[in-house]
Amino acid sequence: MSVGDWIGIVSLVLVIPLGIATNLLTPRFVAYLERRKLIKSIRSKEQEIKAYHRVKAFKDGIRDKYPHYILLATLCVCFELIAVMLALVAFVNFPISIADFFTVQPARLILGVLTGGFFVLGFGFLAIISDTERRLEKFDEYTAEVRRKWGGDDVA
């Protein structure tokens, strides 16, 4: 018997048990995915409500927004400086020549990924600052948006 014959026999033997297992395990798998979705939505709601209360505290004057902005701006500057430092290290230690342009060197790849990651983190903190300021400027619209999304019970 050839390899093709054995593959056919094994597949015929496995089709019936795998079909039965699929029919038995599908409801459990679907229930697991629904629980996970529910947990994720609850966590998203908690994070959104927490952010709303922080912006509301800034708006009402309970908390000062400037230490928050200074912390985020400091983190942004630190991550951008680290990214620039890594980019300079990559360009100084691994000069790019035409012959090396299409070859992948692991050290250059690792430095490139780290540099890109730190740039993205820095810009992420900058985006948080601008998003918080936008929420403060348009607080009524932001409140209506949060109430529409999560209901008015938790947003007081």
TrEMBL record:
Origin: domain of life: Bacteria
Keyword set, alphabetical order: Membrane, Transmembrane, Transmembrane helix
Transmembrane region(s): 6-26, 69-96, 108-129
Name under which the protein is recorded: DUF2721 domain-containing protein
Organism, as annotated: Bradyrhizobium septentrionale
